[in-house]
Amino acid sequence: MIYIGDQRVGSRFCFAPVNTGFCRNGEPEERLVKFHRERSGPEIAISYVGNVAISPEHRTNDATGYMDHDLSKWRRLSAAIDDNESLPGIQIACRAAPDKAPRKWRNDRRTFVESARQALTSMPEATLDELWNKFIRAAEKASEAGFKIIQIHAAHGYLLSQLMNRLINVRRDQFGGGINALERMIQDLRNHLPDTILDIRVNLFDGLEEPNEELSYRIEQIGRLIDAGCNMISLSSGIYDIDKFAIYPEASAGNSVYVEYARKIALLFERTKINVAGNIRDVVSLKDTEPLNLMFSIGRPLIADPGFIKNALTGKNSTECIWSGHCHYYSRMRPHIECKVNKAI
Ligand SMILES: Cc1cc2nc3c(=O)[nH]c(=O)nc-3n(C[C@H](O)[C@H](O)[C@H](O)COP(=O)(O)O)c2cc1C
């Protein structure tokens, strides 16, 4: 029996947050509802709707959703997931970069760090205060729209991820010092939404320092986020503007790229669910793995075949993801997600 907060789920596997490009004017289109209806079911604990911005100005691109006043389409989306017996999850995000994200997969690290540091340092305190309020409002709306898991996006070099990085965040006010302000946001969310399952997606590795150095201070930050009220910590890696391969590992990186680190963290924080993504393919061997608070998020294989988890658990074959990169619509300058092996997406 697996519980996330007070919610019982039938599996340790989730559909990872994925930005599909299936939103218009910030609202989900019917094909996003279909996409998540197909990618939910008793064998999928949480179906996360990826990258929903706190406001139109903080979207990743024009086809990215945001939380607006009229929640009817968001309600329809959460209900489609709920009706299929997965927990509806939503990722609340804020991209606050002066430039558009690069489409290239690898970009210069130093240029990014310098410009991100400069942009974050020069952001007025009042602007950040306003963004903090927008996070709270977006999370409240998402909960009102029926989402049971609210995931705060603090990974992949988005605003909150930059704030957590000690080379980028050198502010000296209340938003400096790593995650003081993020802790406050989690405490506020906990107070505003006492019954919601709060999840935060953070990077194990940003890729800016020696991996062990980054991991050790990240583990300390994770402990503080749990104390502040997070029920769940989701783990990924990489900064979108520097190295997309760290976010979406290639086939050559092997299976379960980040599981050994997630396992270590799950053992340290036994009462919190730790949810890791990155080339999770071997569902059968991970199904009974220890520790029991470790969960797994799967992206591309479920894009390629919505039945991927169910098929694996029942010994059937799936249409397999071949790492073609077709799903990365933004990099490919396409309007929305596509899949080389699943044309029916
Ligand atoms: C097309 C696509 C869009 C993605 N969009 C998001 C996103 O909006 N937010 C996020 O945190 N991760 C996003 N990811 C990353 C996935 O959540 C996941 O961590 C990553 O794909 C690694 O898992 P996988 O190897 O099972 O695909 C996206 C991945 C893909 C393939």
Can you walk through the features of this model?
The chain has 345 residues and is an alpha/beta fold. It has a single domain, classed as Aldolase class I (TIM Barrel, Alpha-Beta Barrel). It is built from 12 helices and 12 strands. It has helices at 30-38, 72-83, 109-122, 125-144, 159-164, 180-192, 211-228, 244-247, 259-268, 283-286, 300-304, 308-313, and strands at residues 2-4, 7-9, 13-18, 23-24, 27-28, 46-53, 87-93, 149-154, 197-203, 232-236, 273-277, 294-298. The strands form 3 sheets. The chain has an 8-stranded parallel β-barrel with strand order 3-6-7-8-9-10-11-12, surrounded by 5 helices. A two-stranded antiparallel sheet has the order 1-2. 48% of the residues are buried. The structure holds flavin mononucleotide. Flavin mononucleotide binds at residues 16-19, 50-51, 91, 153, 155-156, 201, 236, 247-248, 277-280, 298-301, 327-328, 337.
Overall mean confidence score, pLDDT: 96
SSE succession: EEEEEHEHEHHEHHEHEHHEHEHH
CATH superfamily membership: Aldolase class I
Pick out the low-confidence regions.
none
Largest sheet: 8 strands, parallel, barrel
User: What is the helix content?
Assistant: 25-40%
Instruction: Determine the structural class based on helices, strands and strand pairing.
Output: alpha/beta
Give a count of the beta strands, DSSP E runs of length 2 or more. 12
Report strand %: 15-25%
Please report the distance between the alpha carbons of the first and last residues.
32 Å
* Gyration radius, in Å: 18 Å
Oligomer: single chain
Outline? globular
Count of helical stretches: 12
Assign the CATH class. Answer: Alpha Beta
**Bound ligands, each once:** flavin mononucleotide
CATH architecture: Alpha-Beta Barrel
Strands of the widest sheet, in order across it, are: 3-6-7-8-9-10-11-12
Q: How is the CATH topology named? A: TIM Barrel
